[in-house]
Amino acid sequence: MKRLPAILCFLFLLASIQTWPATAQTGKPKMVIDQDTFDAEEVNRSTQKIEHTFVIKNTGTTPLTILNATPG
Questions:
Q1: How many Å apart are CA 17 and CA 55, to the nearest integer?
Q2: Assessment of whether the complete model's pTM goes beyond 0.70
Q3: If you write DSSP's letter for every residue of the chain in order, what string do you get?
Q4: Would you state the pLDDT for residue 72?
Q5: Would you place residue 49 in the very low, low, confident or very high pLDDT band (cuts 50, 70, 90)?
Q6: pLDDT band at 36 (very low <50, low <70, confident <90, very high)
Q7: CA-CA distances (angstroms) from residue 68 to 2, 25, 65, 71?
Q8: d(CA 69, CA 72)
Q9: CA-CA distance, 26 to 18, in Å (whole number)?
Q10: Cα 60 to Cα 69: distance, rounded to the nearest angstrom
Q11: 11-32 as b/e: b if 16+ CB within 10 A
């Protein structure tokens, strides 16, 4: 009778290990940028303000996280 809780615990752990890969995210994010450069040509930094929007899409199967972005 003392072994019954240990056996039940073992069976529960075995069942959860076998179903774990099916619930894990196995895909990857994929970043797609339609325009990866922007030419502002000649700019007078003291009088002109430059604005441009880059559209980034995630075509992957898991969330895409962008942690940092800097102008280059």
A1: 40
A2: no
A3: -THHHHHHHHHHHHHHHHHHHHHS------EEES-------S--TTT--------EEE-SSS----------
A4: 67
A5: confident
A6: confident
A7: 56, 23, 9, 10
A8: 9
A9: 15
A10: 20
A11: eeeeeeeeeeeeeeeeeeeeee
What's the pLDDT at 14?
58
Q: Which amino acid is at 68?
A: N
Q: Look-up: residue for tokens 């969330």?
A: 63
Check: CB of residue 31 under 8 Å from CB of residue 64.
yes
pLDDT digits (tens, 9 = 90+) for 3-33: 666 666 666 665 666 545 544 556 899 999 9
Q: Which two tokens stand for residue 21?
A: 């890969």
